[in-house]
Amino acid sequence: MNKKFLWKIGGEAGFGIMTVGLNFSKIAAHSGYHIFDYTEYPSLIRGGHNTYEVLVSPDIVGASKKTIDLLVCLNKDTFELDKERLARDSMVIYDGDEFAPEGNYQLISLPLRAILKEEEAKEIMLNNIALGASLALMDWDLKYLEEIFIEAFSKKGNDIVEVNKKVARRGFDYIKKNYSELIVKDFPIRQAETKVVLTGNESFSLGSIAADCGLYCAYPMTPASSVQTVLANYAEKTGMVVRHSEDEIAVINTAIGSSWAGVRSAVGTSGGGFALMVEGISLAGMLETPLVIFLSQRPAPATGMPTWTEQGDLLFAVNAGHGDFPKIVLAPGDVQEMFELTVKAFDLADIYQTPVIVLSDKFLSESHQSLDLQKISDFSKNYKPNRGKIVAQVQGQTYQRYQVTDDGISPMLIPGAKGIFYQSNSYEHLENGYTTEAADERIKQADKRNRKLETYLKKDFQKPEIYGDFNKSEIVFISWGSNKGPILEAMKELENASLIHFTHVYPLDQGILIPFFPEGKRYILVENNQTGQFGRLLRGETGIEIKEKLLKYDGRSFWPEEIIKYVKPRRI
Questions:
Q1: Where do the Pyruvate/ketoisovalerate oxidoreductase catalytic domain residues begin and end (predicted)?
Q2: Residues paired with 39 in a beta bridge
């Protein structure tokens, strides 16, 4: 069985749309299935329309699909906004006392507000009536939802737990009694491996903990904000300092100071906040101080569309900072890659004593994906931090902080060693840290710093991953970051297609990458921005030019169907 089922709920903000959506994802995972979910909400303090959709599949899935199988309408707006995504056999739950959908669908009139009134329940509990009805239609058990109620509400009292159970049961029983012929039989509860449901931001947070990050500093900015909340919840247990600074300038300078003192440090932000950090990034480049920067992208310029998605900051990240200095940019494609590359980012920052930027976007940052808990557990158990040339003490009394070396990396002493002179500041310097403006010394230090990139490309650059049978494929997608999921889902419906997926997006090397692009294939660049930024970067760094481009920049991620239609327009 490889059938996929898309459930979506929508309603007015404040009706617990995000909570009930996440609960549906958790219950699907408990029932033995893989999920991918995505939420949409306006950038308003109050009001507006919220939606949450969950794709359920027996196999690992990396993106949603366009056709909705079950649409739960807590208000009329949900139906009006999503009816174009419905098919004739789509099911629509609605309150018949509120409105009547027009169209040839499987209509399910559920007396949501009447049940509320009968149970003397609060209006926010509409969501749990609808969730109970949804579980009945999926032929799943209420026990997982009841366990969630106990975990979430037990501190508020047993009465709250019981009323939530009761309204969910009312929705569940109503479907069983009145719409049993519509119950889906393709997704029976089954035994499966233990899975965890995580967002990209949660995965970055767990990766930071696994990597022994000692300080995370941020000023909240969507869609990176939840990292701070997650890490703060673990701070007492992990010993990590999680600081909410007054602005992004304070954020990056706090982290640089912490890192300079020997603590693994990270910051998080989105494009506008990253802009304020740029001078600090240059400072880290001159100090040669390790730093991990989590940059979760959203549509820009300026405030743009704060709660939507785009990949428009790649070239900004690559070129951030005044002057020439090395930096490394990584771009995970899914939740599993986010965890592993976050851990690697902390190692790379220490090894090369330079800023490492981890690029995400709203699509990856806030979407939940199920993955095998054992994979994360095994990775964490086997991981040992690599701090490169960072040391607690040096032999003798002479210490050259910026010693010129063949690999460009100087021994880095954690300040405070007794009897050792240690100086570093924002000026160009001699090997011992003293300020200099001598031409020959400037060249020595600039060349030394730049050699780090040569060393990285030889030792730690990870070649792009190829998905599909590259030798037999006629069509080759080229992409990076979160486009991975939609492309892989599209490839399930396409013949003779493969993907070259980049996670290490800067620096790049012509000699390493030229063999990936033999002649005779149709190469298609897929990017979630207006100008094909990775294509421009690839051409500038390696001379490889991808002429055919599929670009999307409306604030939404790619549908797999859009990719299929682009390749074979007659199929859809």
A1: 14-173
A2: 52
Confidence of residue 390 (pLDDT cuts 50, 70, 90): very high
Q: Which long-range contacts (CB under 8 A, 24 or more apart) does 437-445 make?
A: 444/404, 445/402, 445/404
Q: How does DSSP classify residue 299?
A: S
Q: How far is CA 189 from CA 368, 463, 571, in A?
A: 20, 40, 33
Percent share of the chain, pLDDT over 70: 98
The H or E element spanning position 268 is: strand 265-269
Domains 5-192 and 200-382 share a fold: no
At residue 308 the predicted structure's pLDDT band, cuts being 50, 70 and 90, is: very high
Element at 329 (helix H, strand E) = strand 328-330
CATH of 200-382 given 3.40.50.300, 3.40.50.970, 3.40.50.960, 3.40.30.10? 3.40.50.970
pLDDT at residue 193, rounded to an integer: 66
The pLDDT assigned to 26 comes to 94
Q: In three state form, how does the secondary structure of 364-430 look?
A: HHHCEEEEEHHHHHHHHHHCCCCCCCEECCCCCCCCCCCCCCCCCCCCEECCCCCCCCCCCCCCCEC
* Cα–chain center distance at 465: 18
Q: Is 443 buried (19+), middle (13-18) or exposed (0-12) by CB count in 10 A?
A: exposed
CA distance 355 to 79: 47
Q: Does the structural domain 465-571 have CATH classification 2.120.10.30?
A: no
Q: What is the pTM of this model?
A: 0.95
Does the pLDDT at position 148 exceed 50? yes
Measured in residues, the chain has a length of: 572
Residue spans per domain, the chain: 5-192, 200-382, 390-459, 465-571
Q: Please state which of the four CATH numbers 3.40.920.10, 3.40.309.10, 3.40.50.300, 3.40.1280.10 is assigned to the domain occupying 5-192.
A: 3.40.920.10
Nearest by Cα to 525 from 500, 496, 554, 546: 546
